Amino acid sequence: KRLALKKFDQSKHKDIEAENKKFRELEYWFKLATDRLNTIKPEVFKPTKMPKNDNVVRVLTISDIHAGERVDSRWGKFNLDIMRERFKVLTEKVINQVEPCELTIFSAGDLGAGRIHPSIVKLSDNFLDSLFAVTESIISMVGTLITHGFTIKLMPIMGNHGSADSAHNARVLVENYERMVEWAIKLKLGEVKQFEMLQPHFNMGLIKIHDYSVVCVHGDQGATKQLADLERLFRHERVKEVLAGHLHHQKSEEYCG
Q1: Residue 238: what pLDDT?
Q2: What H or E segment, with its residue span, contains residue 217?
Q3: Residues 6+ away with beta carbon under 8 Å from 153
Q4: Alpha helical stretches, state H, 98-219
Q5: What pairing do the DSSP bridges indicate for beta strands 151-156 and 195-197?
Q6: Could you give the C-alpha distances from 126 to 43, 67, 123, 218, in angstroms and in order?
Q7: Which of 141-159 are b and which e, b meaning 16 or more Cβ less than 10 Å from the residue's Cβ?
Q8: pLDDT tens-digit readout, 32-77
Q9: Cα 147 vs. chain centroid, distance in angstroms?
Q10: Rg of the Cα trace of the chain?
């Protein structure tokens, strides 16, 4: 009993002492806060002014056209005629929604269905004919925009579907059929003053957006590996964004190069 009474006597004021300690801590922090309050000197923010319409950089991205592929399923329909109609509708939307300006078009690759997947080849139009069909559509779009007051810059990036070889480790840029599209557009529009073909570096493009740059790639496995070379290729550029295409599967698990 004596031991129990002794312990009780020693601990009977602990709750009060604990509350006092909390109060002293709160009092300390409250006093500190009131002291610091007078040191706060709010300033009016100076928000960055939004660029005027004539200073807005506009980029139109077209990607994974897969010209030549024929689709007629529950997912939808696609063929060369539908492709041509889509280019026409896209051009009309740009003209109706955007005032004439300097417009950069990023062509992100896979313009044609290609020959890398045998299952696609069986259900596709002739690859060369398809490439020149999409080339014709691009030139028609650019020409129409120019006649409506636009100045066009085109950044061409090649996709994996344009590769001459289906094996991943055998693909090289110099054997990419989409080079013919770039070549044909240069021949047709090279002398047009309102048109400029931008030059990619190792199939990576750079688009200037005021004080920073956007890197353009196709987006397949080879392109994503190239991003490791960003600092080496564009060490003097302020790169803030990456634009890419390629990924157009129903599920992310289906992704492959």
Answers
A1: 79
A2: none
A3: 102, 103, 104, 105, 195, 196, 197, 198
A4: 118-121, 127-147, 179-189
A5: parallel
A6: 66, 10, 10, 23
A7: bbbbbbeeebbbbbbbbbb
A8: 666 766 766 666 556 556 555 566 788 999 988 888 888 888 878 8
A9: 28
A10: 31
Query: 91 is written with which tokens?
Result: 């051009």
Residues in the chain predicted with pLDDT less than 70, given as ranges, are 1-20, 22-23, 26, 28-30, 32-34, 36-37, 39-55, 114-122, 162-175, 221-226, 228, 247-257
At residue 40, the 3 state secondary structure works out as coil
The alpha helices in the chain, defined as continuous H runs, are: 2-11, 14-37, 80-97, 118-121, 127-147, 179-189, 221-226, 230-233
Note the pTM of the prediction, 2 decimals: 0.69
Coil, strand or helix at 151: strand
Residues 6+ apart with CB under 8 A from 192: 146
Quote the pLDDT of residue 73. Answer: 81
In sequence order, the 6+-apart residues with CB closer than 8 A to the CB of 148 are 95, 100
